[in-house]
Amino acid sequence: MATPTIAPFSKVVIEAVKKLFPEELADKSFDNTGLLLEAPYRPGHLEKSALITVDLTKAVADEAIARRDCIIIAYHPIIFRPLKSITLSNTQQSTLLRLAQEGISVYSPHTAVDAALGGLNDWLADGISSPGQAIRSVITPITNPPVGYEGTGYGRIVRFNAPQKLGDLVAKISAQLGPLSGVSVATPQSVPSGEKSKMEIFSVGICAGSGGSMLAGLDVDLLFTGELSHHEALAATEKGKCVITTFHSNSERAYFRKMMQPMLVKTVKVNILDMARRGEWTEPPENGFDIAVSEVDCDPFEIITGDLESW
Fold first, then answer.
1. At which positions is a divalent metal cation bound (predicted)?
2. The domain 8-113+253-293 is classified under which CATH number: 3.40.1390.30, 3.40.190.150, 3.40.50.1820, 2.170.190.11?
3. CB neighbourhood size of 158 (10 A)
4. What would the mean pLDDT of 208-228 be, rounded to a whole number?
5. 114 annotated as a binding-site residue
6. DSSP per residue over 223-270, as a string?
7. What residues does each domain of the chain span?
8. How many helices (H) and strands (E) does the chain have?
9. 84 pLDDT exceeds 80?
10. Measured between alpha carbons, how far is 259 from 117 in angstroms, rounded to an integer?
11. What is the gyration radius of the CA atoms in the chain, in angstroms?
């Protein structure tokens, strides 16, 4: 009996993701990245297509199955802690079982995307500072990164050459991550209404997702992240800092649509051409493939302003 293998296109996509965001960049102290579900290849059953998502929910799995994707690139690992069983009563495990049955694999790059140069945190920093406008640094550098990936690490600090108004930064963040219903902003209680948007910001600490532990105690004027707890935000404003949060995955999702998808398409094309030259790709290299960003993936929270008719 032949040994089951993963779909050939899935292998190409995984290698492309690894090239852009090496697994060695992930924070292995807590993260669970890499190939989380290796589904056996079913020739002729699935398309040469992949789906990118932040969260792998039941709705996203339904979307991938309907599209007949052979692999899902899920930023957040659907398997995060050790499993003692895999049953249908657990919604995430049920999703994994359905995907395995369909032959759809799952790969998660997570914090490798955060740490990479040109990755998620760098992109968030790009949204608030133009070239030459600020000095950028890494909050927690990676020790002994792979060759060619020096200077990578978790979180970013942006220090402006000239102060920026808080209101202008809120507008830039909203535009970059949009469309959003709004963002949450916390300022010191001593700042009166009408003056908050005019506050001068000289420095920003950035962490996609949940930035409480990384940004705590940072010597900056503004903390920009997906979420902070009530007490973390209060502690920051009591020290005179400002806070901008967007909901956890809203700080991440636009990156995959605007940046990662085109980067992955380009890298997969190069990989297929290289494999074809070596005789390792059996199809004509000009044959098409599809890498899409999920249309149903969204943050679980919405901002409701009172107009329940439209909601």
1. 76, 114, 248, 252
2. 3.40.1390.30
3. 25
4. 96
5. yes
6. EEEEE--HHHHHHHHHTT-EEEE--GGGGTHHHIIIIIHHHHHHHHHH
7. 8-113+253-293, 114-251
8. 10, 11
9. yes
10. 13
11. 21
Indicate the residue type of 282. Answer: T
Cα 112–chain centre separation: 9
pTM for the full model? 0.94
Contact yes or no for 53/12 (Cβ under 8 A): no
Q: Kindly report the number of other CB atoms within 10 A of residue 245's CB atom.
A: 21
| 7-34: average pLDDT | 95
**Order of strands, edge to edge, in the sheet holding 153-165?**
134-141, 153-165, 200-210, 222-227, 242-245, 184-186
User: Amino acid letter at 279?
Assistant: G
Q: Name the average pLDDT for the chain.
A: 94
Containing 201, the helix (H) or strand (E) segment is strand 200-210
285 confidence band (pLDDT: 50, 70, 90)? low
Nearest to 76 by CA among 39, 116, 118, 106: 106
Q: Please state which of the four CATH numbers 3.50.50.60, 3.90.1150.10, 3.40.1390.30, 3.90.380.10 is assigned to the domain occupying 114-251.
A: 3.40.1390.30
Q: Is 76 annotated as a binding residue?
A: yes
105-108 sheet: strands from edge to edge:
34-37, 105-108, 71-74, 49-53, 290-293
255, 109 in Cβ contact below 8 A?
no
* CA-angle at 87, arms to 86 and 91, nearest 5°: 100
The per-residue pLDDT for 3 is 64
Task: Please write the tens of the pLDDT for every residue from 125-154.
Answer: 999 998 899 999 999 999 999 999 999 999
The phi and psi torsions of 127 (rounded to 5 degrees) equal: -70, -20
